[in-house]
Specification:
Keywords: Leucine-rich repeat, Repeat. Helices cover 27% and strands 18% of the residues. By secondary structure, the chain is an alpha/beta fold. The chain has a 26-stranded mixed beta sheet that branches. Strands 2-1-3-4-5 form a 5-stranded parallel beta sheet, sandwiched between helices. A 5-stranded parallel beta sheet has the order 7-8-9-6-10, with helices on both faces. The protein is globular, with a radius of gyration of 37 Å.
């Protein structure tokens, strides 16, 4: 009986104890970072939804995700969380992210209140969690944006609790005595039901598309204060360029190497259009390359569902095509991501023309040729090459992954910059390396930082992506070519490299036996973004690709094992190569070998080389001769002495680069039967190539480079016989050469002869006229050259003749008219001032440049019908015949000494786009001008009084009338809406009152001082226009702004560079910066002055920019410089950054430069109102708005009166 009496007490005690233990367990789990989830219906209401992350400052989280963990945590919400983080947002998801030792529910409450956007995911059992419902009430009270996501439920289910999936949950709450709370919970659900939300069924169950739509809305919903730190580095500029392309075309191909950001850019394009609701339907087909083989039917099904097409058997290509033939109604947006075959695109979109009018397609691929083939059926298409990130973007992206901040931790700034720069702007490498170093910040980890980039070789996420592109190249020749470039040929001219590869067409070596079509192979490498050709025509390769290529040389492609160095096909490291050559083993596999190690090294020869370390000379020489497949050899700065008569050079050698050759002449019995390129540039000790009687045999040599062999006196008399197939001879800066041998006339294949800066060369041999294939003859700055061969006209293939700086040359041969193929004649800075009768016969001439033209034979210009560019600076000849040059595009008559009026016939030159008549002291009138002009320069013409109206010149972008002191009118200026540069300063006779330059979005630079013309300035630059704008006028005060300078700054102008800090300012607001305005009052400027703007973060320069300040006159003038939202300085600014502004001068002699006043004004955008900060003071909102209004009405004009 006693037991039964005490049983109730025992039960109550056990129940309390159980509850206490459960509570402790929950607390401990939260402190340990574990998630507490419901495991049964009974416990589900006791389980707090997963939320958290570390709380350290306001706005620690951008997005609060309200959800019931057991329903969607491991599926939809996990994917949403990952997508938000990839996009740079900080979501609050679950208790795992709460820092250890922090109170779980306090942290959740803090995160809820601090987040800028709330996402509520309503699942079928959502209402069973009281925590979810309480959070929903708090979210409504916060006033922040709420984005409802209806996952398996509808908005109606939130309004009618009694009849839907939430009914069961509320019944449980009532049973548990929560009657009071159920009322407010129902009211909260009804309010949220009225919000515009996202439904899974609206996107046909496509979770990925649903998540992308949510991301777009989150981005637009977050206030500017939270978005300020969320730059998608490099994306803004790329997106703008891509969108500009899509304004012109209906299909855009996005190409680039793996990991460069193609898919990211495509998603940005997609999100932009979806958020602006510009298309009726849209589809993002991701990872098409990999999914085409594993799930092709699913891709078609996704596309059909997104386009609203009817059901069909998607496995049946014919049936799918027939459904597609029915055409897709309306404007649609389709992104086809990552294809590597044309068929993958056509399997999804059989006919581009069946898409509705105004539709847009974006295709991403590593292969340019595949993209162009896929787009072939489009009406208009373009290809966009995704560029690498610049230095600033690279460092920010790296720091964001390594430090979770754009700035590195203290003590890591230099190291972080070095590692980031080593990634070469490759986005995936920056992210991967940065993330790998996130938790390595101790002193013992420094070595890991220095090895981080090298460790990329083992990272399959990066190298695996790139390696697959290499391995999928269609031929062995393509792969061999890629390895040649990666290991040996980066920086070589494309044409020279092709010259080498073409010579292998008959090669039997295993390394290049398949290199039969080098032109096509190189094109494929370029199409796959593995190799590029820069603006100078040189082969370039990203550092990450280079390292990947060299890694391929080091590993066995079949066994996937590391090879020993002696098994490599290319040896690019001179130290490794020298060590291997000192061994006794032969190296038959080697195709490329680098032994050049600098100016002082002695690699091969007498065994004294530090690199060889005691190897015998004969052994080293025999090693070279034993390399049967050696094609590419670099010996820069090395000394090779072959003493063994049985040794010889490798016979298959195609390219020998022996810069800084350390000898007076080449070996007397040099026999290289297959050598096509020999580079001896910079060989200071070389006095002659070889003796006249030397038995030199270079039978197929096509390119010989002797540039900067400053002691070279002459070429051997048998030069022409020794190199009979030579096509290019480069002898720039061979200052000791006085003559060329007559045997040069035997070089019947020679196409390019470069003798520029051979300053002792007196004449050319007459035999030169026998070079029937010569296309280019460069004699630039041959100051001792007195005459050209009389029969020069026999060079019937000559296209370019460069005589610039031949100051002793006064006449051109009469036979010059025979140069029927001549297109370019450069004769500036010569004594040639007359055009003889033969000039009129140069019917192919497109460009002619010469100074001081005095006379020409009448009718000469009538024969120059192909001439598009004429520069006759400083001429004194009558220019009445210019109207006959009907193809002329660029005309420079600047400095003409006698011309008083521009001939009327100039107005007939309908193709003329640039006319320069500046510095013509006698010019009085200009009667007619072609309306197609884009550049017109009439500055510094003191007698000029009249010019025709410019109103009809709708294409004019550059107009310079500066210091035309007699000019009375300039009519139509306000009509030039494309004008980027205008200078009417110093036009003191002009009455410009009432004339306003306004409404011109393109204007970058405007100078109006002294003209009385005004230029309207307002705040519209935040909506568009150039990223940088400079306006100057005469005056002695800054309008509206307070002088921010402590003292006047005076710079002494001297030879070299002088710089002084003028203004500085700290960004005090968190809101995004939209513009920076700089104002100055200056005295006399130097000829070369600049405003230099620097941004410092944590005491370290992160961005700097130069603004050119050309001297317009010697008076006091005001400068207004606006840096708009697209400017790199403005884009980089964050709260706490310091702006420093310097005035600099350079290359001036004597005098001073004065900066008397200055001000800096930063414009923010917050709630659509412009908030200004002037100097270092943040203005009150009302004061700021008043100033914006004043700026909007401001007209800047001459106030010197």
């Amino acid at each position: 009986m006693n037991l039964w009496r005490t049983l109730p007490t025992v039960c109550v005690t056990l129940w309390l104890l159980r509850k206490f233990i459960r509570t402790r367990r929950k607390g401990n789990a939260a402190l340990e970072g574990r998630v507490v989830e419901a495991t049964s219906n009974e416990l589900s209401e006791e389980s707090a939804p997963s939320h958290g992350a570390t709380e350290s400052k306001p706005h620690q989280y951008d997005v609060f995700i309200n959800h019931r963990g057991p329903d969607v945590k491991k599926t939809f919400v996990a994917h949403l969380n990952a997508a938000l983080r990839r996009d740079g947002f900080r979501p609050f998801l679950d208790a795992k992210d709460i820092g250890q030792g922090r109170h779980v529910f306090k942290s959740i409450d803090k995160a809820l209140k601090g987040a800028g956007v709330h996402v509520a995911v309503f699942s079928k059992r959502y209402a069973e969690s009281k925590y979810c419902l309480n959070e929903l009430c708090d979210m409504l009270r916060s006033g922040q944006v709420i984005l409802p996501v209806f996952y398996g439920v509808n908005a109606e289910d939130l309004r009618w609790i009694e009849n839907g999936p939430f009914k069961k949950g509320f019944e449980k709450h009532v049973k548990r005595g929560r009657t009071e709370e159920t009322g407010k919970w129902k009211e909260a659900l009804r309010k949220v039901a009225d919000h515009r939300g996202f439904r899974l069924d609206e996107v046909n169950g496509d979770e990925e598309q649903l998540i992308r739509s949510i991301l777009v809305e989150v981005r637009s919903a977050l206030p500017a204060t939270l978005l300020a730190g969320k730059q998608r580095y490099g994306m803004e500029g790329r997106l703008k360029e891509a969108l500009n392309s899509l304004d012109r075309v209906n299909v855009l191909g996005v190409v680039g190497m793996g990991g460069i950001g193609k898919t990211t850019l495509a998603m940005e394009i997609y999100d932009h259009f979806v958020s602006h609701r510009q298309f009726e339907r849209h589809s993002f087909l991701k990872d098409v390359r990999s999914r085409s083989s594993s799930e092709p039917s699913q891709l078609r099904r996704e596309f059909m569902d997104a386009m609203g097409l009817g059901d069909c058997d998607v496995t049946n290509t014919g049936e799918y095509g027939r459904v597609f033939e029915g055409s897709i109604p309306g404007r649609v947006l389709v992104v086809v991501d990552d294809i590597d075959e044309k068929g993958q695109f056509e399997a999804l979109i059989p006919d581009i023309g069946k898409l509705g009018s105004g539709s847009r397609i974006v295709i991403t691929s590593r292969y340019r040729d595949v993209v162009t083939q896929a787009m072939a059926g489009a009406e208009r298409w373009e290809v966009y090459d995704v560029p690498v990130l610049n230095e600033y973007e690279s460092r920010c992206l790296f720091n964001r992954h390594a430090f979770l901040s754009e700035t590195p931790s203290e003590g890591f700034a230099d190291l972080a910059a070095k590692v980031a720069d080593a990634c070469g702007g490759h986005a995936l490498s920056l992210e991967t390396v940065g993330a790998s170093l996130f938790d390595k910040k101790g002193p013992e980890d420094m070595e890991m930082w220095s090895e981080a980039v090298k460790a990329l070789e083992e990272n399959e996420d990066v190298f695996g992506k790139l390696r697959s592109t290499y391995e999928r190249l269609p031929t062995d020749g393509d792969r061999a070519m890629f390895l040649d470039v990666a290991c040996m040929l980066i920086g070589m001219e494309k044409e020279v490299a092709l010259m080498i590869w073409k010579s292998c067409s008959g090669c039997t070596g295993g390394q290049c036996s398949t290199l039969r079509t080098p032109g096509l192979s190189l094109r494929r490498l370029m199409d796959r973004s593995l190799v590029r050709v820069d603006e100078e025509g040189k082969l370039r390769m990203h550092d990450v690709l280079r390292d990947m290529g060299r890694d391929m040389v080091k590993r066995d492609s079949v066994k996937k094992e590391r090879r020993r160095p002696e098994e490599w096909t290319h040896l690019w490291d001179a130290r490794v190569a020298a060590k291997l050559l000192s061994s006794a083993e032969t190296k038959p596999r080697i195709r490329g070998l680098c032994l050049g190690v600098g100016y002082r090294a002695k690699i091969l020869g007498d065994g004294e080389s530090a690199g060889v370390r005691g190897g015998s000379a004969s052994n080293i020489a025999s090693q070279l001769s034993g390399m049967k497949e050696l094609h590419l050899l670099v010996l820069d700065g090395s000394y090779v002495e072959v003493r063994d008569e049985n040794s010889s050079w490798p016979e298959e050698l195609r390219w020998l680069q022996w810069r800084r050759f350390r000898g007076g002449q080449l070996p007397s019995e040099l026999k290289l039967p297959h050598l096509v390129v020999l580079d001896l540039s910079g060989s200071e000790e070389l006095t002659r190539l070889w003796e006249d009687d030397a038995d030199i045999k270079l039978p197929v040599l096509q390119l010989l480079i002797l540039s900067e062999c400053r002691r070279l006196v002459e070429l051997a008399e048998n030069f022409g016989q020794s190199v009979p197939k030579l096509k290019r001879l480069e002898m720039r800066w061979c200052g000791s050469v006085k003559r060329l041998p007559e045997s040069i006339g035997r070089l019947t294949d020679l196409e390019h002869l470069d003798l520029s800066w051979c300053r002792n060369l007196v004449s050319l041999p007459d035999a030169v006229v026998g070079l029937g294939k010569l296309k280019t003859l460069n004699l630039q700055d041959c100051v001792s050259l007195q005459q050209l061969p009389e029969e020069l006209g026999k060079l019937t293939s000559l296209e370019t003749l460069d005589l610039w700086g031949c100051t002793c040359l006064s006449d051109l041969p009469a036979s010059i008219g025979g140069l029927k193929m001549l297109t370019n004649l450069e004769a500036r800075h010569t004594a040639v001032t007359n055009l003889g009768a033969g000039f009129g016969m140069l019917t192919s001439l497109t460009s002619l440049s010469m100074f001081g033209l005095r006379s020409y034979v009448p009718g000469t210009f009538q024969g120059l019908q192909a001439l598009t560019s004429l520069d006759v600076y400083g001429a004194s000849a009558d220019m009445g015949g210019l109207g006959a040059l009907t193809a002329l595009k660029d005309l420079d008559l600047s400095g003409h000494k006698t011309i008083t009026a521009l001939p009327k016939s100039i107005g007939n030159l309908k193709w003329l786009v640039s006319l320069d008549m500046s510095h013509c002291p006698e010019l009085v009138t200009v009667e007619a001008l072609p309306e197609g002009l884009e550049r017109l320069d009439l500055g510094e013409c003191p007698k000029l009084t009249e010019i025709p109206s410019v109103a009809g010149m709708k294409s004019l972008v550059h107009l310079d009338l500066g210091n035309c002191g007699s000019l009375r009118h300039v009519r139509g200026l306000e009509c030039l809406t494309l004008l980027e540069y205008v200078n009417v300063s110093g036009c003191t006779s002009m009455d410009g009152r009432g004339i306003r330059i306004m409404g011109n979005r393109a204007l970058r630079e405007c100078h109006v001082g002294g003209s009385k013309i005004g230029v309207a300035f307002d705040n519209r630059w935040v909506e568009g226009g150039p990223s940088e704008q400079v306006i100057t006028w005469m005056g002695n005060a800054i309008p509206l702004l307070t002088n921010g300078m402590v003292n006047e700054v005076v710079l002494l102008m001297k030879l070299g560079r002088t710089s002084a800090l003028v203004l500085e300012c700290v960004i005090a607001r968190e809101a995004k910066c939209m513009s920076v305005i700089l104002c100055f009052v200056t005295g006399r400027l130097g000829r070369s002055s600049d405003i230099e703007v620097k941004v410092l973060r944590g005491g370290r320069f992160i961005v700097q920019s130069l603004i050119c300040c050309r001297r317009l006159n010697d008076g006091i003038q005001v400068w207004l410089c606006t840096l708009g939202r697209e400017h790199q300085v403005v884009q980089s600014l964050q709260q706490g950054d310091q702006i420093q502004v310097y005035f600099t001068t350079s290359f001036n002699f004597g005098g001073t430069c004065r900066v008397m006043e200055g001000a800096i004004c930063v414009v923010h955008k917050e709630d659509e109102n412009h908030i200004l900060m002037m100097n270092s003071e943040v203005l009150e909102k009302k004061e700021s708005q008043d100033m914006v209004l004043q700026f909007g009405k401001l007209v800047l004009e001459d106030t010197s009166d």
